[in-house]
Write the structure tokens for this entry.
Amino acid sequence: MISGDVSILDGKRGALWYALQAFSKEWDRIDVICPHSQSARTMQTYFGNVYFHPSPRAPWYQSRWIMAQGLKLHGLFKHAVMTVQDSPPFSGSVGALRLARKTGMPCVLEIHRIMGYPRAANLREYAGRHWSRMRLPQIVRKMHGTRTVSKTTAETLMRWGAPKTKIHVVPSFFLDRSVFENLGAPPPVQYDAVCCGTLLANRGVADVLRAIATFKRARLLIIGDGPERPRLEHLAAALGIAHRVEFRGRISSPVDLFQAMRSARVFFSNAMGEDGQRMPIEAMACGMPVIVRPVGILRDVIVEGVNGLFTNGTPEDLTLKLQQLLDDQAMQERLGVEARGVLDRFERERLVTMYAHFLRSFA
């Protein structure tokens, strides 16, 4: 596996940690070649058979590191298939394709999101979206196969000229049913709405604050941390709602996180791009009514007015949708009940098995 995610090496139990925990039961050995990490400079072992190999040098060396370490590992263990999770400037794909040509190993590209799509939040994302549109169709053609996690992303790639025969939709939003079914009774309601995730410019939390400011007493819980937090705290104060907005910070325990989310009536996700969509899915698994932008996997999952509501992301529309739910307790409950259907769609064991079969089809 070629991955740019070093969160496990930094001690974080995020999506990659839980995915590899499940994958470790499906494969004899998994080697992960990843970029340089300040937390770990030598090989690290997880789950007994998952081995991380961080690059000893800066990002410019990554393509060479993939080739050098990949040749060494394949010579020792004769891996059946290689996957590469990549984003602009696609140095991972460059290294992986060279390694595939040298070893004959099948190579599968994984695209979990397209940077800056459908809407870029800053110049970096705008450049990333432009670069993706230029390079991704070429890269897809050279791969044995490409996995996208949503129909929306697959359709975008095909519209850009990537061959349909090389693209497969295999979801990756793994949900552990036992966790959600054993949460117990929800805590007392303390907030009218909750936002959750890394506080970045493209998450649209500023417009959520502007929507909350139109209510006289509505309370908002913001879970997560990130570079935008100081600006958001300043905006809440400027809007005169600092006393009605709580910045909780990051909550590491999944159970504690879900319980905190459930202390609110409604879950907001105002993200402009395809990243950060795990939290709305998990909120739905908790039985919460959600208000989200129609991007990425959420377009595949949500049926408007049945298991969630869509918003265009403006403060005016966010206000309208939140008011609609706060005024209708029966609608809140109905959407929440229907939302729990994601547990069947994204049940972890079933999706891990599906993904393993998908990779074995190339091996």
